[in-house]
C-alpha cells in the first residue's frame, strides 16, 4: 500500500525517483499552505498494483510537514481526484477555510481539518462520473444517421459501396455474376473500385456495369440537433483544473469536427458545452506557473501560434455567465411577455444565453473569440444548423470587466 511521505523532502525525492508525478498544486502566494495532487507511478516501491495510476492529494504546511488529504485507495477516479483538488482550491481562495493551517503547538488547526474532511467526504461520496471515451466511434443510433442509404448511380463517390457485373478482365466468368466492391475514385462514368474484402488491387469498371450503389452510414450527413443543458451541471466545471481539462477536451472535439466538416453529435455537444474559455484560468499561459506545465504543453500542441496568442488574450475578459443567472433572466423576460422574436446577444461567448433561450428566440449574436465561436456553432443555441456548446463560470470577482 502506498505510504505518503510526511515531509516535503520525501515527496520531492519520490518525484525525482519517478515514484509519483505532480499533477497540480496551489501557489504559496495564496495561502500559508499548499495543496498538491500527485499521480502514483508503477515505479513506486510501496504502491500496490491497484494503486498505480491513481492519485494522492496532500497539504504541504509552512514547516514543510505533509498531511495526506486523500490516499490512492480513496481516489479511484481521476475526475473525482481533480474535483476534490478544485473544491479545496476554491475554498482556500474564497474564504471557505481558516486563514492558518498550524496551531501554536505545531498541530493542524482543527477547523481546517474538519473542513477538509467534510469536502473530501462530499466529493468521494458522490457517484463516480460516467464518461464515454472521446476516441470512441459513435454508433449509427447515437448520431442519428441510421443504416446505409441507397445512392443514385450518377452520384457515386469515394467510399460508396457498389454491386457490379463481373465482366471486366480482372473478374472473368459468368456475365451474370456480381461483385461487391467499394469505390476508390469516380470520374463521370469511369469508376475505380476495390473488392470489398480488400483482397485485390483496385480495378476499373464502367458505370454500365454497376447494378446498385449504397452509401455507408458513416458517410451520410449528420442532422444537427439542438443541445439543451439542464443547468450548470452540464456546463463548465467550477475549479481551475476541471476547467482546463474541459477546455482541452472541447478543443479536441472542435479539431475533429473541423477535419470531418460536420456538426457535433449529441455526445460531442455535451463536451463542447463544458467549454469556459481562459478568463478563470490565466495561469495556464504563464510559464512561471509550474503547476500546470503538463496541461500547458498539451494545450500548446493543440493550437497554432496565432490561436495560442488569441486564447491568451481572452484571459482579460472571457468570463461566461453562470446558468443560475441565465435561467432567471429568461424566465423574467417570458414573465414580461416575451414569447418569440429577434434577440441581440452582442457578446455571446460560447452561447450560454443561447442555450437556455426559448424556442421562439431568433438570436443575432456576436462572438469575440474564435474557439468560443466554434464551440457555440457546434454546440449551444443554434437550433437548425448545430447545437449548443455554451458554458458559464462563477460570478466574477471584483475588478475587471466581464463578457458573456
TrEMBL record:
This is Uncharacterized protein. Residues 370-380 have a biased composition (Low complexity). Residues 393-404 have a biased composition (Basic residues). It comes from Kitasatospora indigofera. It comes from the Bacteria. Residues 360-404 are annotated as: Disordered. InterPro entries: SAM-dependent_MTases_sf.
